[in-house]
Structures are given as C-alpha cells and as structure tokens.
Specification:
Blueprint (H helix, E strand, L loop, with lengths): L1 H23 L9 H7 L1 H11 L4 H10 L4 H12 L17 E6 L50 H6 L31 H9 L3 H12 L8 E14 L8 E17 L8 E10 L3 H13 L16 H7 L2 H9 L6 H26 L1
Antiparallel strand pairs: 1-2, 2-3, 3-4
C-alpha cells in the first residue's frame, strides 16, 4: 500500500508540472497577462465574478489564466479564494435606479424617459469571423455618445403607476424581514424568494439558459417580455459599526433584468402582469435574462399556478443550478473507484451464475 501511495504522489506531481507546461503553451509567444484577460476577455471575467460570487476583476482574470480558460474551474478557484476572505458584514442594498448607465433597452416600450441606450452589444452584428482580429490592427476608438442626464426610472414603474403589474415588493411576509444568506445558512425547502434569487444569481448560466428556454417552449407556459435590461455602474455603500451611517466604498458594474409576464389572476389578485427578476455582476445580460425567466417560473406556487414543468420545481432547479457542486459530483467519477467496482463486478457475476443455474433447472 505504501508503494502505491508513493507512486501515486509522484504521478500527481508530474501531472501538475505537465499542466503548468500546457498552460504556458508555445514559449515563443508572449505570456498572456491577467490584465489582458480582464480588458480583452471582459465578458468571461464578468461571468466568473458572477458565478464565483466575488466582485474582483483581477482575481477572476487570474483564475481564468490558471484554469486555461475553463470557466467553471475558474469559478471554483474564485469561490475557494472567497472563503479565505475576512467578513465585515453586509453592504447597503444597491440603488439600481441611480445607475450610471452604459446600456439600457426595453422590448415593451419604444419611447422611454431617458431613452434607449444600445451600448456595446452583439445584437446587431453579423456572425462572420473578423479576420482583421488576427493582427493587432485595432480600429480607432469609437466616439462615445453621451448618455442623457434625464432621469432613467425603471420601465416597469410605468405599468405600476397604472396598477397593471404586481407591486415590486411582492413576496409576502418575507419581503419585510431581513433577507437570508445562503452562504451562511444551510439550504432547506421550501426556500424564500430572497435566498432563491441568491442561488440563481450565482447559478450556472448554461443551466439557467436551458431552463429559461424551456419555459418559452411551453414547459411552464410563460412567454415573457423584456421589460428592461440595464447595464452600468452602481455605488456600493457600507455602514461601519463605529460610525452608524453609510459610507460609499466603491462602484461595481452590474446587469439587471426585469421580465414582464401575463397573469390571469387568482382568488386574491386581479388579472395583471407579473415580474421575473435577474441580476448579475458585470455585463452578463444573457444570464440575467435567464435568471429572470426562471425566477418567474419558480413563483408558480406563490401565484396559485400548477407546477407542471422542471423550471417550476424549486428543489430540482436549486439543487442542480450550482456548477461547482455539479462539477464535483460529475468529475469525482474520474477518481479511483476500484473497490466499489470490484464489488459491483462480483455482484453481477453472482447474479449471472444464479440466473444460469435457474435456467438450467428450468430446462431440466
């Protein structure tokens, strides 16, 4: 047994060295830096920050480099780093209404107070490879159109003023209580919406995208409208115990999405529009949109709707949306299971012997 352990350690050390060599790649090429990743692969950095539940562009870029571009491995690294950080408390809730907007669109109203702001987007590009990017022939910097100083209230507020959509504070008694913290308290079902949103916010984008897509195809009977998607910088404030008042400690970029869904009404509520909500660090609008769709689907019980689809099953969604946990369960299958498999092998052989004996007896 000692020889086997010693040999395994040597093999693992060699695997680590080979990994470092593969990560570096062709040494005739310049080594990529975390700064380059942060600036030029910004959307990947944003995803790692969001699903890693830690807003730090430098650490997220470093994790992407260390993981050789494997986003889920990078998320794992960021979460592991997060657990080592000192905890000072909770920040004040951010005010997305005061966002310094770089992108803001609505699919429900054309003319908005503050206007539509397309910002940097792939929405209107042709999906053709740009061979010019093979060289360092970067185009001249585009002139940034100034964002209007006009107030940019949330679009769904227009419906709220007319009483056509549920109030933003919808959520029952939990809306008035302190929000939970899924990183500090064990998960137990049923889950309040505040904790549910926390889990979705750091859930895997691909998983949520698939579930959101399923709701549009009839598996939950939800066909939403993008009420508003906004991307921009918001202030983060914190209340130190020794001061007793809020101090703004910095700005972060976030993406916020509010979806609008029809609702036929119930015994206690008239026909009206309902909301789905999504938010993420950085510029991650696909994630925020998917999150908003799944959030609305998971509100089926609250709105007296039948739960008939996977996206409406709270335990199914929340137990499987975390990519780090999912990766652990799937990839642990690569580790040695020799003893387990030998017991299974012996069981199958015994069952086959018994079955063969039974057949022989039946033939006789």
């Amino acid at each position: 047994m000692y020889v086997a352990v010693k040999g395994g350690e040597r093999a693992i050390d060699n695997a680590h060295r080979l990994l470092a060599e593969k990560r570096r790649g062709n040494r005739s090429l310049a080594d990529i830096t975390p700064e380059q990743i942060s600036e030029q692969l910004a959307l990947g950095v944003d995803r790692v920050m969001s699903e890693g539940s830690l807003y730090d562009r430098g650490l997220a870029a470093l994790a992407i480099k260390q993981a050789r571009g494997d986003m889920i491995e990078a998320v794992f690294l960021v979460r592991a780093s997060r657990t080592t950080l000192a905890r000072f408390g909770y920040s004040v809730a951010i005010d997305t209404g005061a966002m310094e907007i770089s992108r803001r669109i609505s699919a429900t109203f054309k003319d908005l107070p503050g206007g539509q702001v397309l910002g940097p987007t792939f929405d209107y590009t042709h999906r053709l490879l740009d061979c010019g990017l093979e060289t360092d022939s970067s185009p001249e910097p585009a002139a940034m159109a100034p964002v209007s100083d006009e107030a940019t209230p949330h679009v769904l507020g227009l419906l709220d003023k007319q009483g056509l959509i549920e109030p933003a504070s919808s959520g029952g008694a939990q809306a008035e209580s302190e929000p939970g913290d899924m990183t500090r308290d064990p998960l137990s079902f049923p889950v309040d919406r505040d904790v549910r949103l926390q889990m979705l916010a750091r859930g895997d984008e691909g998983f949520l995208l698939a579930l959101g897509y399923s709701t549009q195809r009839g598996y939950a009977r939800n066909h939403p409208f993008a009420g508003e998607i906004r991307v921009g910088m918001v202030e983060v404030c914190f209340v130190p115990e020794e001061l007793g008042f809020a101090v703004c400690i910095g700005d972060i970029e976030i993406t916020e999405c509010e979806m609008v869904n029809q609702f036929k009404g119930s015994k206690s509520a008239p026909p009206q529009f309902t909301r789905g909500y999504g938010i993420s660090f950085g510029h991650c609008e696909r994630k925020a949109m998917s999150m908003a769709q799944v959030d609305r689907a998971l509100r089926a019980g609250e709105l007296d709707e039948d739960r008939t689809a996977p996206a409406q099953d709270e335990e199914f969604v929340l137990s499987h949306c975390d990519n780090v946990q999912a990766t652990g369960f799937v990839e642990h299958l690569k580790l040695p299971h020799y003893v387990d498999f030998q017991s299974e092998l012996e069981l199958v052989r015994r069952m086959r012997r018994e079955q063969g004996a039974d057949r022989q007896e039946a033939a006789e």
